From TrEMBL:
PANTHER family: NUCLEAR PORE COMPLEX PROTEIN NUP88, NUCLEOPORIN NUP84-RELATED. It comes from Forsythia ovata. This is Nuclear pore complex protein. Keywords: Coiled coil, mRNA transport, Nuclear pore complex, Nucleus, Protein transport, Translocation, Transport. GO terms for biological process: mRNA transport; protein transport. GO terms for cellular component: nuclear pore. Residues 656-704 form a coiled coil. Residues 751-762 have a biased composition (Polar residues). Residues 1-21, 750-774 are annotated as: Disordered.
């Protein structure tokens, strides 16, 4: 049984506790009655075309708050719909939704097309993101309610940085920080990662990290300096203070430590990495490891002052708040690019690169137990799945001071720094390298390649792929692309498998198609405009997709037996037919019954048994003993057989029905094959005829005289090359010279003479006329010579061509 408030009661309670007191004369307007309908049949998801914002940015106009509310952005009406849902009702495979939905309207008009909506951790604020704008919509703190519509406060973010027409910078990826309700991370096309604090400043970032993946002055490809995507780390050691940056060439970098000012973290988690720095860093014999761990400890004690006070006492805190702090003489290093780790030396570099094609388009960080999984999607349709083979550790570059903004009380308000990549030499990483050789030395954590999954997508230059993790089964990753949705399940995790104490071989992940958006008659796909995953406390999981025409698709996903693998067939030991037959027989009837009744061991008889009559006491006792033995063996065996047959009758009927259905399908397929056989034979006949005609044409072409002509002699080849050179180069030069001379002549003829007197004009006119006549005569003679030379060359070319034709005819 489920308990909860109704839609109207929950809205009235969430309205800040305000009650509407009406007089007897004023009657409140009746509200629409709440109806619970299946989610896919909700009136909001009708067949209405939604073509607004047709961009190549991946669209996701739906979001779930993790509890009982679904939000959908209406691109036509520019508003947000809030839908209350009930998971697993009335049956485990369905979801109920309340109708009508509550409409949340922005207090200021949204002037851009929204492509993505995101909700923060506590569900109090929504992020509306598009190519031309970015704003935050606060759900609680509305100003008024009119006609079942809630007016919500909406503010713009970073408009002077990202959407200034004089300095246009594109936002590549936007995400809420997992440890804060007010901090937002933005990666932009100017290779800068910024963190905004919505509680203090909307236009000025709290932290700025200028990414510099290559050394200044070094040559590199353009793809190696173009960021694509980023992701915050998970709740594991230093991963919670890390940001993963993906570049267009597929290289991955790490920024650590990155902590929003005022974010809240678990006391046990921070204390664990604090003790780890003391144990493995300060006690190391390497001086570099001691210095790096000392920087980390000082940073932790300044960011979380409770550590220094209560670490030794074993404080009973549950959560601690991060204080604004930055090292004034060091900047955070850009760790990377992350290299692959190998089991042995001599591995080919192509193994590290893999078979991924195109450019990197998206990135996913997934934490499963103790394994940090990194998934990179490529425009060629491949997924590169790697795992961190070592723990992340913070790295600073000492001597590169950041820029810090403080207030009048010397409190840090903002920080900006240049993050340079520090490559730790060209040493080959080994998988079995001891921990004391790598801990706290400033090396980026290596990657262990798990798999490269080819989704077999059509080749497109603008292919976009987005990924999301299943909320119940962390090993399952949903991949959303233009062709639909695929499910990738990981069956091997290095640290998780190692912790189980079993040496398991590396298994390839399984790939399943969940949903296809291609129509049956046409290969044209219709990408989804929304994709969500739901889960409840009973372990059920659903996926929901929204098409461009607002058609809702809801599917229940398997969770319990997802990670179970079939062990009947092992690599290198195929199962024989006799074993399969034995396994099938065992499932139908037991071996004990197939062996028959047990052999009856008769008791020893007396020597005078033949002389004893059946009516006597001894005879009756002997017969009774024999009947008892036969009853215990044969009659009880018959009862067992009868019971077993009765028990297996439904199972046998099911097997027979299954065999009959398979037989009918096979017969139907045979009929279809017979129908298609005639078409195939006709096509083969047409192909044979076409092949014969092509062979005949090829024979005729081989018999042509052109193929038997003799090659030109050396003199003929020299003459031909001279003609080609003259026709290709010198003729163009002559034409350009003639045009230049004609232009000079026209300009000289039409030039006015205004700076002389009339007499001088007459005298100079006569002199000029004579000069012009001389020049004109020279030009005419030059043109005549050129035309004569051209005609002679033309005649020579014609003579050569006629001679070649006559030679071909004679041959």
């Amino acid at each position: 049984m489920r308990f909860g408030f109704s839609e109207t009661e929950s809205e009235r309670i969430s309205d800040g506790g305000r009650l509407s007191l009406t007089s007897p004369l004023s009657i409140p307007s009746p509200k629409a009655e709440i109806q619970w309908v299946p989610l896919q049949n909700h009136p909001l998801f009708s067949s209405t075309a939604d073509t607004a914002g047709d961009s190549r940015m991946p669209r996701n106009l739906m979001v779930w708050d993790g509890a009982s509310r679904l939000y959908f952005w209406d691109s036509n009406k520019k508003c947000l719909h809030r839908i209350s849902i009930r998971l697993g009702e009335p049956d485990p495979a369905s979801i109920l939704a309340a109708s009508p939905s509550k409409v949340l309207q922005t207090d200021a008009p949204v002037s851009f097309n929204v492509d993505k909506i995101l909700v923060n951790r506590n569900g109090s604020a929504f992020l509306l993101a598009g190519l031309e704008g970015l704003c935050v919509m606060y759900l609680y703190g509305r100003s008024s309610v009119e006609e079942n519509t809630i007016i919500c406060r909406t503010v713009s973010i970073g408009s002077e940085i990202y959407f200034n027409r004089n300095n246009y910078i594109r936002t590549l990826q936007i995400s809420w920080h997992p440890c804060s309700d007010t901090h937002l991370g933005i990666l932009s096309s100017d290779s800068v990662f910024r963190i905004f604090d919505l509680s203090s400043a909307l236009e000025r970032p709290e932290q700025e990290y200028y990414l510099q993946p290559v050394e200044p002055g070094s040559s590199c490809k353009a793809a190696s300096i173009c960021p694509v995507d980023f992701a915050f780390g998970g709740d594991h050691l230093w991963d919670r203070f890390s940001v993963f940056i993906l570049f267009s060439d597929g290289s991955i970098y790490i920024l650590c430590p990155i902590v929003p000012f005022g974010s809240v973290h678990k006391w046990e988690s921070v204390l664990e990495i604090y003790n780890d720095a003391h144990t493995f860093g300060m006690n190391s014999s390497n001086l570099k490891a001691v210095n790096n761990s000392n920087l980390a400890i000082s940073w932790l004690e300044a960011t979380f002052p409770e550590l220094a006070r209560q670490a030794g006492e074993g404080g009973n805190l549950f959560a601690i708040k991060a204080q604004p702090y930055v090292l004034f003489d060091a900047s955070v290093s850009l760790q990377g690019p992350l290299r692959n780790v190998y089991h042995r030396l001599g591995e080919d570099s192509e193994v590290q690169r893999g078979v991924c094609e195109g450019r990197a388009v998206s990135f996913l960080y997934n934490l499963v137990s103790k394994d940090s999984i990194l998934v990179t999607a490529w425009s060629g349709g491949q997924l590169q799945i790697d795992a961190l083979a070592d723990e992340i550790q913070p790295v600073w570059k000492v001597g590169s001071a950041p820029r810090v903004c403080v207030d009048s009380y010397d409190h840090i308000l903002g920080v900006a720094m240049i993050c340079e990549s520090v490559t730790p030499g060209s040493s080959v990483l080994k998988f079995d390298q001891p921990q004391n050789h790598t801990a706290w030395l400033g090396h980026p954590p290596p990657l262990l390649r798990l798999a490269i999954v080819d989704l077999a997508l059509p080749k497109k230059n603008d292919l976009l792929i987005s990924m999301i993790v299943d909320p119940i089964v962390g090993e399952r990753i949903y991949c959303l692309h233009d062709e639909g949705i695929d499910s990738i399940v990981l069956h091997f995790l290095p640290f998780t498998s190692q912790a189980s104490g079993k040496e398991e071989p590396m298994k390839t992940p399984s790939v399943h198609a969940v949903l296809s958006t291609c129509s049956g008659k046409s290969s044209r796909s219709s990408p989804l405009h929304g994709f969500l995953t739901f889960s409840d406390s009973f372990g059920s999981s659903w996926v929901m997709g929204l098409t461009a025409s607002r058609e809702c698709i809801l599917l229940q996903m398997e969770t319990w037996n997802l990670l179970l693998t079939h062990t009947t067939e092992k690599e290198g030991s195929p199962v024989r037919f006799e074993e399969l037959k034995e396994m099938d027989t065992h499932t139908i009837i037991s071996k004990e019954l197939l062996a028959g009744p047990k052999a009856v061991i008769l008791p020893p008889s007396a020597p005078n048994l033949r002389s004893v009559t059946a009516d006597s006491i001894e005879g009756r006792a002997t017969l009774h003993q024999y009947f008892k033995l036969f009853h215990e063996n044969y009659v009880e065996y018959a009862h067992k057989v009868y019971f077993e047959l009765q028990h297996h009758a439904p199972h046998l009927k099911k097997i027979i029905d299954n065999q009959h259905s398979r037989l009918r399908k096979a017969q139907q397929k045979l009929l279809e094959v017979e129908k298609k056989q005639e078409k195939v034979e006709s096509r083969i006949e047409r192909a044979v005829q076409l092949h014969n005609s092509l062979e005949e044409r090829l024979h005729n072409l081989k018999s042509l005289s052109v193929l038997h002509k003799k090659p030109l002699s050396k003199a003929e080849q020299d003459f031909k090359s001279e003609l080609d050179r003259f026709a290709g180069v010198e003729m163009d030069a002559l034409h350009s010279s003639i045009e230049a001379l004609n232009a000079r002549l026209r300009r000289h003829v039409h030039s006015p003479q205004t700076n002389f007197s009339n007499q001088q004009k007459q005298k100079s006119g006569r002199m000029a006329s004579r000069v012009q006549e001389d020049e004109v005569s020279q030009l005419k003679s030059s043109l005549a010579k050129l035309s004569l030379l051209n005609s002679e060359n033309t005649q020579k070319v014609k003579l050569v061509e006629s001679a070649l034709k006559n030679r071909d005819i004679s041959d």
